[in-house]
Write a structure and sequence with these properties.
alpha+beta; Surface presentation of antigens (SPOA); 4-stranded antiparallel sheet
Length: 102
C-alpha cells in the first residue's frame, strides 16, 4: 500500500472528511443569517452608579466597581446569555476575551 493510500484511509483522515461533509450543510443553513446585526453586551453591575457619574465620563475615565478582577463577566447577544469573558487591555482599548460558552 502506498503512503498516499494509507494516509487517505487512516481513521483520523476519514473522520475529518466525515466531519467536513456533515458541517457543510449546517454552514449553508446558517449562511443567510451570518450578516444579520446583533448587539453584544457585557454585564457589569455598578450598583452605586448614577446619571451624574455617567455625565462626568470622559476619555480615560476609570469607574470603580465591586466586581472582582478574577471573576468573568456575563456576555449577552440580543439579551441572551452566550458565555463569559474577561477584560483585557488591547493597546489603548479595553477588550473582552471570551473564556467560556454558555
Amino acid at each position: 500500500m502506498s503512503a498516499a493510500v494509507a494516509q487517505a484511509t487512516s481513521p483520523n483522515n476519514a473522520q475529518k472528511a466525515r466531519d467536513r461533509e456533515e458541517s457543510e450543510p449546517q454552514e449553508a443553513q446558517w449562511r443567510p443569517a451570518l450578516d444579520l446585526p446583533c448587539q453584544l453586551t457585557v454585564d457589569l453591575p455598578l450598583p452605586s452608579f448614577k446619571v451624574a457619574d455617567f455625565l462626568k465620563l470622559r476619555n480615560g475615565s476609570v469607574i470603580a466597581t465591586g466586581w472582582r478582577v478574577t471573576r468573568d463577566v456575563p456576555l449577552r447577544i440580543n439579551g441572551t446569555l452566550i458565555g463569559w469573558g474577561e477584560f483585557e487591555g488591547a493597546g489603548r482599548r479595553l477588550a473582552v476575551r471570551l473564556t467560556e460558552l454558555a
